[in-house]
Amino acid sequence: MNKAVYISPEDQASDDLAWMREALYMAEEALQNGEVPVGCVFVKNGQAIARARNRTNEWRNATLHAELEAIDHLLPYNPPPLSSITLYVTVEPCVMCASALRQVGIGRVVYGCGNDRFGGCGSVLDVSTSDMLDTNPAFEAVGGYLREEAIMLLRRFYMSENQNAPNPKKKATRVLKTDIPPPPSGTASAATSRSASAAPTPTPAPKFPLPIGGTLASTPRPLTPQ
Ligand SMILES: [Zn+2]
Question: Which of 22, 67, 69, 149 is catalytic?
Fold first, then answer.
């Protein structure tokens, strides 16, 4: 049963959307580098403390999801629990990443589109809230933020030939679909997320570039027009 929680666009806070835009920049960079386009940024006290994007193809390492790369970078400077930190990620964290996020005690997760195959924040398993886990308290996970943009990035990736696939299909036969179905029925929520009801003074829009680091750090660059 799909337990993912989606926030209606009219209930989404502007600062959450601004940070999700930064996560989309990272996802766009992943796409430009032949990776499944997933990007993320971790935010603490209105500042980005780490950001990353998927690098599984580059390093031939299936665990190098954006979230885990960022966690590797930020943990030395931010010992768990990360209860004061919010993760913005373009796709619902998978079961592996959701488990890692729970183990480091993440405070809140805001994502773009759901992950119907591997989602660990309600779409497949609710690692984020299940009381079967006793590692750390449940964390809030809400989706639907710039969801269409996140989906279109994924579609553009799967439209192109995957050079790493054993039998890449010809893209000439493919058509980029632009219709976006609504979130899974029965899961849409008009619930106001924590941030939407928080401080009256909005967080300034994040400036580019943002701090990153570590040996896997990428070069910040703005989103280029298509
Ligand atoms: Zn993951």
Answer: 67
